[in-house]
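CHAIN AND CONFORMATION:
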Amino acid sequence: MLNQNPVWRYFLVVGILLLAFVYALPNLYPEDPALNISATRGGTVAEDVRSELEQAFAAAGIAAKSVELENGQVLARFNSTEEQLQAREIATQLLGSGYINALNLAPATPDWLNSIGASPMKLGLDLRGGVHFLMAVDMKAALDKNLNDMAQTFRLDLQAEKIRYRSTKVDLDRGQVQLTLRSVEDVALAEAALKKRDRELVFAPGNDELTVFVTISEIRLKEIREYALEQNITIIRNRVNEIGVAEPLVQRQGSDRIVVQLPGVQDTAQAKEILGATASLEFRLVDEDGDIGAALDGRVPPGAELYYTRDGRPVLLEKRVMLTGEHITGASSAYDEYSRPQVSIKLDAKGGSLLSTATKDAIGRRMASVFIEYKPGTEIAADGTPVLIKQQEVINDATIQARLGRDFRITGISSPGEAQNLSTLLRAGALIAPIQIIEERTIGPSLGKENIELGVKAIQWGMVAVLIFMVIYYKAFGMIANIALVANLVLIVGVMSMIPGATLTLPGMAGIVLTVGMAVDANVLIFERIREEMTEGRSVQQAIHHGYDRAFATIADSNITTLLVALILFGVGTGPIKGFAVTLAIGILTSIFTAVVGTRLLVNLFWGGRRVQSLPI
Protein backbone atom coordinates (compact mmCIF):
# COMPACT_ATOMS: atom_id res chain seq x y z
CA MET A 1 0.00 0.00 0.00
CA LEU A 2 1.19 3.54 -0.71
CA ASN A 3 2.87 5.78 1.89
CA GLN A 4 3.99 3.17 4.35
CA ASN A 5 7.52 3.02 5.76
CA PRO A 6 9.38 0.15 7.44
CA VAL A 7 9.91 0.48 11.18
CA TRP A 8 13.70 0.59 10.85
CA ARG A 9 13.46 3.89 8.97
CA TYR A 10 11.68 5.50 11.91
CA PHE A 11 14.31 4.19 14.31
CA LEU A 12 17.09 5.49 12.02
CA VAL A 13 15.69 9.03 11.84
CA VAL A 14 14.94 9.13 15.57
CA GLY A 15 18.47 7.86 16.28
CA ILE A 16 20.00 10.60 14.13
CA LEU A 17 17.95 13.27 15.89
CA LEU A 18 18.84 11.90 19.34
CA LEU A 19 22.54 11.87 18.43
CA ALA A 20 22.34 15.48 17.25
CA PHE A 21 20.44 16.43 20.41
CA VAL A 22 23.08 14.86 22.70
CA TYR A 23 25.93 16.64 20.89
CA ALA A 24 23.97 19.91 20.94
CA LEU A 25 23.42 19.67 24.73
CA PRO A 26 26.86 21.12 25.74
CA ASN A 27 25.79 24.45 24.25
CA LEU A 28 23.26 24.81 27.08
CA TYR A 29 26.11 25.05 29.61
CA PRO A 30 27.71 28.55 29.54
CA GLU A 31 31.46 28.96 29.95
CA ASP A 32 32.90 29.97 33.30
CA PRO A 33 35.10 33.05 33.74
CA ALA A 34 38.43 31.46 34.62
CA LEU A 35 41.97 32.28 35.67
CA ASN A 36 44.74 30.16 34.20
CA ILE A 37 48.00 30.29 36.19
CA SER A 38 51.17 28.80 34.72
CA ALA A 39 54.87 29.00 35.60
CA THR A 40 57.25 30.86 33.30
CA ARG A 41 59.93 29.06 31.28
CA GLY A 42 57.76 25.95 30.96
CA GLY A 43 57.76 25.04 34.65
CA THR A 44 54.91 23.36 36.52
CA VAL A 45 52.80 24.71 39.37
CA ALA A 46 53.08 22.78 42.64
CA GLU A 47 50.15 21.59 44.77
CA ASP A 48 51.08 23.90 47.65
CA VAL A 49 50.77 26.90 45.30
CA ARG A 50 47.27 25.76 44.32
CA SER A 51 46.30 25.36 47.97
CA GLU A 52 47.73 28.78 48.83
CA LEU A 53 45.73 30.39 46.01
CA GLU A 54 42.53 28.69 47.11
CA GLN A 55 42.98 29.96 50.67
CA ALA A 56 43.78 33.49 49.43
CA PHE A 57 40.62 33.58 47.30
CA ALA A 58 38.49 32.39 50.23
CA ALA A 59 40.06 34.97 52.58
CA ALA A 60 39.16 37.73 50.10
CA GLY A 61 35.54 36.57 50.03
CA ILE A 62 35.73 35.08 46.52
CA ALA A 63 33.63 31.91 46.26
CA ALA A 64 35.50 30.15 43.46
CA LYS A 65 33.66 27.30 41.75
CA SER A 66 36.86 25.28 41.72
CA VAL A 67 40.65 25.68 41.94
CA GLU A 68 42.30 22.67 40.32
CA LEU A 69 45.63 21.55 38.92
CA GLU A 70 45.43 20.59 35.22
CA ASN A 71 48.50 19.68 33.16
CA GLY A 72 50.87 21.45 35.52
CA GLN A 73 48.75 24.63 35.61
CA VAL A 74 46.14 26.01 37.99
CA LEU A 75 42.65 26.53 36.55
CA ALA A 76 40.37 28.55 38.81
CA ARG A 77 36.69 28.97 37.85
CA PHE A 78 34.47 31.79 39.09
CA ASN A 79 30.83 32.85 39.01
CA SER A 80 31.37 36.29 37.45
CA THR A 81 33.94 38.36 35.61
CA GLU A 82 34.19 40.69 38.63
CA GLU A 83 35.41 37.81 40.79
CA GLN A 84 37.72 36.71 37.97
CA LEU A 85 39.41 40.15 37.79
CA GLN A 86 39.68 40.39 41.57
CA ALA A 87 41.24 36.92 41.72
CA ARG A 88 43.87 37.89 39.14
CA GLU A 89 44.96 40.85 41.27
CA ILE A 90 45.28 38.57 44.30
CA ALA A 91 47.24 35.95 42.34
CA THR A 92 49.59 38.60 40.91
CA GLN A 93 50.38 40.00 44.37
CA LEU A 94 50.75 36.53 45.87
CA LEU A 95 52.90 34.81 43.23
CA GLY A 96 54.96 37.65 41.76
CA SER A 97 56.61 37.66 38.34
CA GLY A 98 57.44 33.94 38.26
CA TYR A 99 53.96 33.05 37.07
CA ILE A 100 51.66 34.03 34.20
CA ASN A 101 48.10 34.89 35.26
CA ALA A 102 45.84 34.69 32.21
CA LEU A 103 42.15 35.51 32.02
CA ASN A 104 40.21 32.91 30.06
CA LEU A 105 36.83 31.26 29.57
CA ALA A 106 36.65 27.61 30.59
CA PRO A 107 33.97 25.23 29.26
CA ALA A 108 31.49 23.92 31.86
CA THR A 109 30.44 20.78 29.97
CA PRO A 110 29.48 17.89 32.32
CA ASP A 111 31.90 14.99 32.55
CA TRP A 112 29.47 12.48 31.02
CA LEU A 113 29.26 14.58 27.87
CA ASN A 114 33.03 15.05 27.80
CA SER A 115 33.46 11.29 28.05
CA ILE A 116 31.68 10.81 24.69
CA GLY A 117 33.52 13.68 23.01
CA ALA A 118 30.61 16.14 23.13
CA SER A 119 31.65 19.77 23.40
CA PRO A 120 29.99 23.13 22.71
CA MET A 121 30.23 24.88 19.37
CA LYS A 122 33.48 26.72 18.83
CA LEU A 123 32.71 30.42 18.92
CA GLY A 124 34.56 33.02 16.89
CA LEU A 125 36.21 36.12 18.28
CA ASP A 126 33.09 38.27 17.72
CA LEU A 127 30.96 35.98 19.91
CA ARG A 128 33.35 34.67 22.54
CA GLY A 129 35.63 37.65 22.97
CA GLY A 130 39.41 37.42 22.82
CA VAL A 131 42.42 39.12 21.29
CA HIS A 132 43.22 40.02 17.70
CA PHE A 133 46.72 40.70 16.41
CA LEU A 134 47.98 41.88 13.04
CA MET A 135 51.61 40.84 12.62
CA ALA A 136 54.17 41.99 10.06
CA VAL A 137 56.82 39.62 8.68
CA ASP A 138 60.27 41.17 8.25
CA MET A 139 60.99 40.12 4.66
CA LYS A 140 64.39 41.84 4.64
CA ALA A 141 65.54 39.59 7.48
CA ALA A 142 64.31 36.56 5.50
CA LEU A 143 66.34 37.64 2.46
CA ASP A 144 69.39 38.42 4.63
CA LYS A 145 69.21 34.97 6.19
CA ASN A 146 68.93 33.40 2.75
CA LEU A 147 72.04 35.29 1.60
CA ASN A 148 74.04 34.13 4.62
CA ASP A 149 72.91 30.54 4.06
CA MET A 150 73.78 30.87 0.38
CA ALA A 151 77.30 32.11 1.20
CA GLN A 152 77.82 29.17 3.57
CA THR A 153 76.57 26.77 0.89
CA PHE A 154 78.99 28.29 -1.63
CA ARG A 155 81.91 27.58 0.69
CA LEU A 156 80.86 23.95 1.14
CA ASP A 157 80.24 23.48 -2.60
CA LEU A 158 83.58 25.02 -3.60
CA GLN A 159 85.39 22.87 -1.05
CA ALA A 160 83.60 19.77 -2.32
CA GLU A 161 84.63 20.57 -5.89
CA LYS A 162 88.18 21.43 -4.71
CA ILE A 163 87.99 24.92 -6.23
CA ARG A 164 90.32 27.41 -4.59
CA TYR A 165 88.85 30.69 -3.31
CA ARG A 166 90.08 33.57 -1.19
CA SER A 167 86.86 34.84 0.41
CA THR A 168 83.07 34.91 0.32
CA LYS A 169 81.49 38.15 1.54
CA VAL A 170 77.82 38.95 1.97
CA ASP A 171 76.60 42.43 0.99
CA LEU A 172 73.19 42.68 2.66
CA ASP A 173 72.50 46.20 1.34
CA ARG A 174 72.85 45.11 -2.29
CA GLY A 175 71.51 41.61 -1.73
CA GLN A 176 74.48 39.77 -3.21
CA VAL A 177 77.41 37.53 -2.36
CA GLN A 178 80.92 38.48 -3.44
CA LEU A 179 83.19 35.58 -4.39
CA THR A 180 86.92 36.12 -4.75
CA LEU A 181 88.78 33.22 -6.41
CA ARG A 182 92.46 32.35 -6.75
CA SER A 183 92.73 32.40 -10.54
CA VAL A 184 90.74 33.13 -13.71
CA GLU A 185 90.34 29.38 -14.28
CA ASP A 186 88.88 29.03 -10.79
CA VAL A 187 86.32 31.75 -11.62
CA ALA A 188 85.03 29.78 -14.62
CA LEU A 189 85.03 26.52 -12.65
CA ALA A 190 83.19 28.14 -9.71
CA GLU A 191 80.46 29.59 -11.96
CA ALA A 192 79.96 26.27 -13.70
CA ALA A 193 79.83 24.32 -10.42
CA LEU A 194 77.42 26.72 -8.68
CA LYS A 195 75.13 27.01 -11.73
CA LYS A 196 74.98 23.24 -11.92
CA ARG A 197 73.63 23.12 -8.33
CA ASP A 198 71.29 26.12 -8.66
CA ARG A 199 70.19 27.50 -12.04
CA GLU A 200 68.37 30.45 -10.45
CA LEU A 201 71.65 32.18 -9.56
CA VAL A 202 72.67 35.30 -11.50
CA PHE A 203 76.42 35.98 -11.95
CA ALA A 204 77.98 39.39 -12.68
CA PRO A 205 81.67 40.34 -13.07
CA GLY A 206 83.30 42.18 -10.19
CA ASN A 207 85.84 44.97 -9.98
CA ASP A 208 88.63 42.65 -11.13
CA GLU A 209 88.88 39.39 -13.06
CA LEU A 210 89.08 37.27 -9.88
CA THR A 211 85.85 38.63 -8.35
CA VAL A 212 82.30 37.68 -9.22
CA PHE A 213 79.00 38.87 -7.70
CA VAL A 214 76.19 36.36 -7.20
CA THR A 215 72.56 37.44 -6.81
CA ILE A 216 69.21 35.66 -6.74
CA SER A 217 66.74 35.85 -9.61
CA GLU A 218 63.40 37.64 -9.17
CA ILE A 219 61.57 34.32 -9.35
CA ARG A 220 63.63 32.96 -6.46
CA LEU A 221 63.13 36.18 -4.46
CA LYS A 222 59.37 35.80 -4.81
CA GLU A 223 59.60 32.15 -3.74
CA ILE A 224 61.64 33.14 -0.65
CA ARG A 225 59.04 35.73 0.39
CA GLU A 226 56.15 33.31 -0.15
CA TYR A 227 57.93 30.54 1.72
CA ALA A 228 58.78 32.84 4.65
CA LEU A 229 55.16 33.96 4.98
CA GLU A 230 53.56 30.52 4.65
CA GLN A 231 56.12 28.85 6.91
CA ASN A 232 55.67 31.52 9.57
CA ILE A 233 51.90 31.00 9.45
CA THR A 234 52.36 27.26 9.96
CA ILE A 235 54.85 27.74 12.78
CA ILE A 236 52.77 30.34 14.63
CA ARG A 237 49.75 28.05 14.38
CA ASN A 238 51.82 25.17 15.77
CA ARG A 239 53.16 27.32 18.61
CA VAL A 240 49.68 28.43 19.64
CA ASN A 241 48.38 24.86 19.46
CA GLU A 242 51.32 23.55 21.50
CA ILE A 243 50.61 26.02 24.29
CA GLY A 244 46.92 25.06 24.27
CA VAL A 245 44.89 28.05 23.06
CA ALA A 246 41.53 26.73 21.84
CA GLU A 247 40.24 27.43 18.30
CA PRO A 248 42.91 29.93 17.24
CA LEU A 249 42.73 31.65 13.86
CA VAL A 250 46.03 32.21 12.06
CA GLN A 251 45.77 33.32 8.44
CA ARG A 252 47.50 35.39 5.78
CA GLN A 253 46.63 38.99 4.97
CA GLY A 254 48.32 40.58 1.98
CA SER A 255 51.91 39.90 0.99
CA ASP A 256 53.62 40.21 4.40
CA ARG A 257 50.94 40.27 7.11
CA ILE A 258 49.55 37.56 9.39
CA VAL A 259 46.29 37.80 11.34
CA VAL A 260 46.18 35.95 14.67
CA GLN A 261 42.93 35.65 16.66
CA LEU A 262 42.80 33.88 20.02
CA PRO A 263 39.15 33.45 21.11
CA GLY A 264 38.53 33.24 24.84
CA VAL A 265 41.85 34.86 25.77
CA GLN A 266 41.05 38.13 27.54
CA ASP A 267 44.55 39.20 28.48
CA THR A 268 46.74 40.73 25.76
CA ALA A 269 49.83 40.34 27.96
CA GLN A 270 49.26 36.59 28.15
CA ALA A 271 48.62 36.43 24.40
CA LYS A 272 51.87 38.28 23.75
CA GLU A 273 53.64 35.81 26.03
CA ILE A 274 52.34 33.04 23.78
CA LEU A 275 53.40 34.78 20.59
CA GLY A 276 56.68 35.90 22.19
CA ALA A 277 57.77 32.26 22.00
CA THR A 278 57.77 32.56 18.22
CA ALA A 279 61.52 33.10 17.94
CA SER A 280 64.14 31.15 16.03
CA LEU A 281 66.91 28.70 16.97
CA GLU A 282 70.40 28.07 15.66
CA PHE A 283 72.97 25.41 16.52
CA ARG A 284 76.64 26.48 16.49
CA LEU A 285 79.96 25.08 17.66
CA VAL A 286 81.66 26.66 20.66
CA ASP A 287 85.00 28.31 19.81
CA GLU A 288 87.04 26.72 22.59
CA ASP A 289 90.35 28.13 21.31
CA GLY A 290 89.27 31.76 21.52
CA ASP A 291 90.24 34.08 24.34
CA ILE A 292 87.10 35.13 26.27
CA GLY A 293 88.94 37.93 28.03
CA ALA A 294 90.14 39.43 24.74
CA ALA A 295 86.66 39.07 23.27
CA LEU A 296 85.15 40.96 26.22
CA ASP A 297 87.68 43.75 25.54
CA GLY A 298 86.44 43.97 21.95
CA ARG A 299 89.05 41.70 20.27
CA VAL A 300 86.77 38.95 18.96
CA PRO A 301 88.50 36.34 16.74
CA PRO A 302 87.66 36.70 13.00
CA GLY A 303 85.63 33.48 12.73
CA ALA A 304 83.77 33.82 16.02
CA GLU A 305 81.04 35.84 17.72
CA LEU A 306 80.48 36.67 21.38
CA TYR A 307 77.24 35.48 22.99
CA TYR A 308 75.88 35.31 26.53
CA THR A 309 73.96 32.61 28.35
CA ARG A 310 70.76 33.29 30.30
CA ASP A 311 72.75 33.68 33.50
CA GLY A 312 75.10 36.22 31.89
CA ARG A 313 78.06 33.91 31.21
CA PRO A 314 80.01 34.89 28.02
CA VAL A 315 80.46 32.23 25.33
CA LEU A 316 82.44 32.40 22.10
CA LEU A 317 80.67 30.66 19.19
CA GLU A 318 81.75 30.07 15.62
CA LYS A 319 80.03 32.24 13.00
CA ARG A 320 79.17 29.18 10.94
CA VAL A 321 75.62 27.99 11.62
CA MET A 322 75.47 24.20 11.75
CA LEU A 323 71.68 23.90 11.71
CA THR A 324 68.55 26.03 12.07
CA GLY A 325 65.28 25.05 13.73
CA GLU A 326 63.35 24.84 10.44
CA HIS A 327 64.67 21.28 9.89
CA ILE A 328 63.29 19.94 13.20
CA THR A 329 60.32 17.60 12.78
CA GLY A 330 59.92 16.40 16.38
CA ALA A 331 61.17 16.97 19.92
CA SER A 332 60.36 15.49 23.32
CA SER A 333 61.63 16.05 26.85
CA ALA A 334 62.86 13.14 28.98
CA TYR A 335 65.68 12.12 31.33
CA ASP A 336 69.10 10.69 30.50
CA GLU A 337 70.77 7.70 32.16
CA TYR A 338 71.80 9.91 35.08
CA SER A 339 68.21 11.18 35.64
CA ARG A 340 69.09 14.60 34.23
CA PRO A 341 66.63 16.43 31.96
CA GLN A 342 67.29 16.24 28.22
CA VAL A 343 65.52 16.94 24.92
CA SER A 344 65.44 14.35 22.13
CA ILE A 345 65.28 15.86 18.63
CA LYS A 346 64.31 14.46 15.22
CA LEU A 347 65.33 16.17 11.96
CA ASP A 348 64.15 15.94 8.38
CA ALA A 349 66.38 14.31 5.76
CA LYS A 350 68.10 17.55 4.74
CA GLY A 351 68.68 18.60 8.35
CA GLY A 352 70.12 15.18 9.22
CA SER A 353 72.53 15.39 6.30
CA LEU A 354 73.64 18.91 7.22
CA LEU A 355 74.21 18.02 10.87
CA SER A 356 76.02 14.81 10.00
CA THR A 357 78.42 16.71 7.76
CA ALA A 358 78.91 19.48 10.33
CA THR A 359 79.66 17.14 13.25
CA LYS A 360 81.83 14.61 11.39
CA ASP A 361 85.02 16.25 12.63
CA ALA A 362 83.52 17.88 15.76
CA ILE A 363 83.27 14.90 18.14
CA GLY A 364 84.30 15.98 21.62
CA ARG A 365 83.55 19.64 20.96
CA ARG A 366 80.67 21.59 22.48
CA MET A 367 77.59 22.58 20.49
CA ALA A 368 75.44 25.51 21.63
CA SER A 369 71.72 26.16 21.06
CA VAL A 370 71.16 29.87 20.38
CA PHE A 371 67.73 31.37 21.07
CA ILE A 372 67.07 34.38 18.80
CA GLU A 373 64.27 36.83 19.43
CA TYR A 374 63.31 40.08 17.68
CA LYS A 375 61.75 42.88 19.75
CA PRO A 376 60.57 46.34 18.67
CA GLY A 377 63.05 49.14 19.34
CA THR A 378 62.67 52.90 19.60
CA GLU A 379 63.59 53.60 15.96
CA ILE A 380 60.66 53.87 13.53
CA ALA A 381 60.85 52.56 9.94
CA ALA A 382 59.51 54.29 6.82
CA ASP A 383 56.20 52.35 6.97
CA GLY A 384 55.56 53.55 10.54
CA THR A 385 56.43 50.28 12.30
CA PRO A 386 59.18 50.04 14.95
CA VAL A 387 62.52 48.66 13.75
CA LEU A 388 63.13 45.23 15.25
CA ILE A 389 66.16 44.68 17.48
CA LYS A 390 67.76 41.25 17.39
CA GLN A 391 68.33 39.68 20.81
CA GLN A 392 70.29 36.44 21.15
CA GLU A 393 71.15 34.18 24.07
CA VAL A 394 72.66 30.74 24.51
CA ILE A 395 70.08 28.51 26.16
CA ASN A 396 72.44 25.55 26.56
CA ASP A 397 75.69 24.02 25.33
CA ALA A 398 76.67 20.35 25.48
CA THR A 399 79.50 18.11 24.28
CA ILE A 400 79.05 16.19 21.03
CA GLN A 401 79.55 12.53 22.01
CA ALA A 402 79.29 11.04 18.49
CA ARG A 403 78.58 12.04 14.89
CA LEU A 404 75.02 13.34 14.84
CA GLY A 405 72.33 12.50 12.30
CA ARG A 406 68.57 12.76 12.12
CA ASP A 407 68.19 11.87 15.82
CA PHE A 408 70.20 13.46 18.63
CA ARG A 409 69.67 14.87 22.11
CA ILE A 410 70.44 18.07 23.97
CA THR A 411 71.71 17.71 27.56
CA GLY A 412 72.95 20.12 30.21
CA ILE A 413 69.48 21.63 30.75
CA SER A 414 68.87 23.08 34.20
CA SER A 415 65.35 21.74 34.98
CA PRO A 416 62.60 19.45 33.65
CA GLY A 417 60.40 22.50 33.06
CA GLU A 418 63.14 24.06 30.94
CA ALA A 419 63.44 20.82 28.95
CA GLN A 420 59.68 20.71 28.37
CA ASN A 421 59.62 24.35 27.31
CA LEU A 422 62.53 23.82 24.90
CA SER A 423 60.91 20.72 23.38
CA THR A 424 57.69 22.67 22.83
CA LEU A 425 59.65 25.43 21.11
CA LEU A 426 61.54 22.96 18.91
CA ARG A 427 58.44 20.94 17.96
CA ALA A 428 56.68 24.04 16.75
CA GLY A 429 59.65 25.04 14.59
CA ALA A 430 61.72 28.18 14.12
CA LEU A 431 60.45 31.23 12.30
CA ILE A 432 61.88 31.81 8.84
CA ALA A 433 61.71 35.58 9.39
CA PRO A 434 61.10 37.72 12.49
CA ILE A 435 57.65 39.16 13.12
CA GLN A 436 56.26 42.05 15.11
CA ILE A 437 52.78 43.01 16.28
CA ILE A 438 51.65 46.19 14.50
CA GLU A 439 48.01 46.15 15.60
CA GLU A 440 46.19 44.60 18.54
CA ARG A 441 42.57 44.62 19.65
CA THR A 442 40.79 43.09 22.61
CA ILE A 443 37.13 42.10 22.34
CA GLY A 444 35.65 41.70 25.81
CA PRO A 445 33.39 38.80 26.72
CA SER A 446 30.56 41.24 27.48
CA LEU A 447 30.46 42.38 23.84
CA GLY A 448 30.56 38.77 22.68
CA LYS A 449 27.71 37.92 25.07
CA GLU A 450 25.65 40.80 23.70
CA ASN A 451 26.25 39.59 20.14
CA ILE A 452 25.11 36.09 21.09
CA GLU A 453 21.97 37.40 22.78
CA LEU A 454 21.03 39.52 19.77
CA GLY A 455 21.71 36.62 17.39
CA VAL A 456 19.61 34.22 19.47
CA LYS A 457 16.77 36.76 19.58
CA ALA A 458 16.90 37.07 15.78
CA ILE A 459 16.69 33.27 15.43
CA GLN A 460 13.84 33.07 17.95
CA TRP A 461 11.76 35.81 16.31
CA GLY A 462 12.39 34.34 12.90
CA MET A 463 11.25 30.91 14.08
CA VAL A 464 8.14 32.30 15.80
CA ALA A 465 7.09 34.12 12.64
CA VAL A 466 7.59 31.03 10.49
CA LEU A 467 5.84 28.73 12.99
CA ILE A 468 2.76 30.96 13.20
CA PHE A 469 2.51 31.35 9.42
CA MET A 470 2.80 27.60 8.77
CA VAL A 471 0.13 26.69 11.35
CA ILE A 472 -2.31 29.30 10.03
CA TYR A 473 -1.79 28.49 6.35
CA TYR A 474 -1.26 24.70 6.36
CA LYS A 475 -3.02 23.68 9.61
CA ALA A 476 -1.95 20.16 10.75
CA PHE A 477 0.58 19.86 7.95
CA GLY A 478 1.96 23.19 9.14
CA MET A 479 2.51 21.65 12.58
CA ILE A 480 4.49 18.83 10.96
CA ALA A 481 6.60 21.39 9.10
CA ASN A 482 7.21 23.20 12.40
CA ILE A 483 8.38 20.00 14.08
CA ALA A 484 10.79 19.51 11.17
CA LEU A 485 11.98 23.12 11.56
CA VAL A 486 12.81 22.62 15.26
CA ALA A 487 14.54 19.33 14.44
CA ASN A 488 16.50 21.13 11.72
CA LEU A 489 17.80 23.70 14.23
CA VAL A 490 18.87 20.92 16.62
CA LEU A 491 20.66 19.18 13.74
CA ILE A 492 22.53 22.36 12.76
CA VAL A 493 23.74 22.94 16.33
CA GLY A 494 24.65 19.26 16.76
CA VAL A 495 26.59 19.07 13.49
CA MET A 496 28.39 22.37 14.21
CA SER A 497 29.38 20.98 17.62
CA MET A 498 30.64 17.70 16.14
CA ILE A 499 32.77 19.14 13.31
CA PRO A 500 36.27 19.92 14.72
CA GLY A 501 37.05 22.84 12.41
CA ALA A 502 33.62 24.52 12.40
CA THR A 503 33.45 27.89 14.18
CA LEU A 504 30.28 29.88 14.79
CA THR A 505 30.67 33.60 14.11
CA LEU A 506 28.20 36.49 14.03
CA PRO A 507 27.76 36.12 10.23
CA GLY A 508 27.34 32.41 10.91
CA MET A 509 24.37 33.21 13.12
CA ALA A 510 23.00 35.24 10.22
CA GLY A 511 23.35 32.09 8.12
CA ILE A 512 21.26 30.19 10.69
CA VAL A 513 18.58 32.90 10.60
CA LEU A 514 18.53 32.64 6.81
CA THR A 515 18.32 28.84 7.03
CA VAL A 516 15.30 29.10 9.36
CA GLY A 517 13.51 31.08 6.68
CA MET A 518 14.62 28.76 3.89
CA ALA A 519 13.98 25.51 5.78
CA VAL A 520 10.21 25.57 5.15
CA ASP A 521 10.58 26.29 1.42
CA ALA A 522 10.75 22.57 0.67
CA ASN A 523 7.62 21.90 2.71
CA VAL A 524 5.79 24.72 0.97
CA LEU A 525 6.65 23.17 -2.42
CA ILE A 526 5.55 19.71 -1.24
CA PHE A 527 2.32 20.88 0.36
CA GLU A 528 1.34 22.97 -2.66
CA ARG A 529 2.04 19.99 -4.94
CA ILE A 530 -0.19 17.79 -2.74
CA ARG A 531 -2.95 20.40 -3.00
CA GLU A 532 -2.63 20.45 -6.79
CA GLU A 533 -2.76 16.66 -7.00
CA MET A 534 -5.93 16.58 -4.91
CA THR A 535 -7.48 19.36 -7.01
CA GLU A 536 -6.87 17.24 -10.12
CA GLY A 537 -8.95 14.45 -8.56
CA ARG A 538 -6.33 12.07 -7.24
CA SER A 539 -6.92 10.15 -4.04
CA VAL A 540 -5.36 11.24 -0.78
CA GLN A 541 -2.70 8.50 -0.88
CA GLN A 542 -1.81 9.24 -4.51
CA ALA A 543 -1.66 12.97 -3.78
CA ILE A 544 0.77 12.44 -0.90
CA HIS A 545 2.92 10.03 -2.93
CA HIS A 546 3.10 12.18 -6.09
CA GLY A 547 3.40 15.39 -4.07
CA TYR A 548 6.63 14.28 -2.41
CA ASP A 549 8.07 12.52 -5.47
CA ARG A 550 7.43 15.30 -7.98
CA ALA A 551 8.46 18.15 -5.67
CA PHE A 552 11.76 16.49 -4.84
CA ALA A 553 13.39 17.36 -8.19
CA THR A 554 12.58 21.04 -7.75
CA ILE A 555 13.77 20.99 -4.12
CA ALA A 556 17.04 19.28 -5.10
CA ASP A 557 17.75 21.74 -7.95
CA SER A 558 17.15 24.85 -5.85
CA ASN A 559 19.14 23.61 -2.85
CA ILE A 560 22.07 22.25 -4.88
CA THR A 561 22.61 25.63 -6.56
CA THR A 562 22.52 27.37 -3.17
CA LEU A 563 24.89 24.75 -1.76
CA LEU A 564 27.34 25.36 -4.63
CA VAL A 565 27.31 29.08 -3.86
CA ALA A 566 27.99 28.30 -0.18
CA LEU A 567 30.94 26.07 -1.15
CA ILE A 568 32.37 28.82 -3.39
CA LEU A 569 32.01 31.35 -0.58
CA PHE A 570 33.83 28.98 1.75
CA GLY A 571 36.59 28.34 -0.79
CA VAL A 572 37.39 31.92 -1.75
CA GLY A 573 36.17 33.80 1.32
CA THR A 574 37.98 34.54 4.56
CA GLY A 575 36.91 35.12 8.15
CA PRO A 576 33.26 36.22 8.41
CA ILE A 577 32.43 35.02 4.88
CA LYS A 578 33.58 31.49 5.74
CA GLY A 579 31.51 31.53 8.93
CA PHE A 580 28.40 32.43 6.95
CA ALA A 581 29.14 29.78 4.30
CA VAL A 582 29.62 27.00 6.87
CA THR A 583 26.26 27.48 8.60
CA LEU A 584 24.49 28.02 5.28
CA ALA A 585 25.87 24.79 3.79
CA ILE A 586 25.09 22.73 6.91
CA GLY A 587 21.62 24.31 7.11
CA ILE A 588 20.84 23.40 3.50
CA LEU A 589 21.77 19.74 4.01
CA THR A 590 19.89 19.39 7.30
CA SER A 591 16.81 21.19 5.97
CA ILE A 592 16.59 18.79 3.01
CA PHE A 593 16.81 15.87 5.43
CA THR A 594 14.14 17.16 7.82
CA ALA A 595 11.81 18.64 5.19
CA VAL A 596 11.84 15.67 2.80
CA VAL A 597 12.66 12.61 4.93
CA GLY A 598 11.41 13.75 8.34
CA THR A 599 8.06 15.23 7.33
CA ARG A 600 7.26 12.33 5.00
CA LEU A 601 7.73 9.88 7.84
CA LEU A 602 5.33 11.90 10.01
CA VAL A 603 2.78 12.32 7.21
CA ASN A 604 2.93 8.59 6.48
CA LEU A 605 2.63 7.82 10.20
CA PHE A 606 -0.59 9.84 10.59
CA TRP A 607 -2.26 9.53 7.17
CA GLY A 608 -0.31 6.98 5.10
CA GLY A 609 -1.98 3.70 4.16
CA ARG A 610 -5.36 4.77 5.52
CA ARG A 611 -8.70 5.32 3.85
CA VAL A 612 -9.11 9.05 4.40
CA GLN A 613 -11.14 11.35 2.17
CA SER A 614 -9.38 14.66 2.89
CA LEU A 615 -6.25 16.15 4.43
CA PRO A 616 -5.89 19.03 6.94
CA ILE A 617 -3.69 21.04 4.59
The domain at 7-26+444-606 is CATH 1.20.1640.10 (Multidrug efflux transporter AcrB transmembrane fold). The CA atoms of residues 87 and 93 lie 10 Å apart.
